[in-house]
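Pasting as-is:
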Amino acid sequence: MGKLIRDRIPELLGDQAGTHRQLQDEEFEAALREKLQEEVQEYLKSGEVMELADILEVVYALGKLDGVTESQLDYFRAEKARDRGTFEEKLYWDGD
């Protein structure tokens, strides 16, 4: 079963990299969505901060497909934080 890989993986692995191909935009978006699920699961399992960096990389790539830059995504995040707050206070709604 194949999966989306970072650009430098074939270069880093050399002959061990196996075969790879460049995806078209529609395939790429589907592969990014799969990759996001994979990276989130890896973070939930390990709790490692580097997995959060992988999640961000996938999120930025998805944003780029929608014509949004990393800076714009960061702006949107900050705007939403201003409007609705963040998770700093660790609030939990019990649903009552």
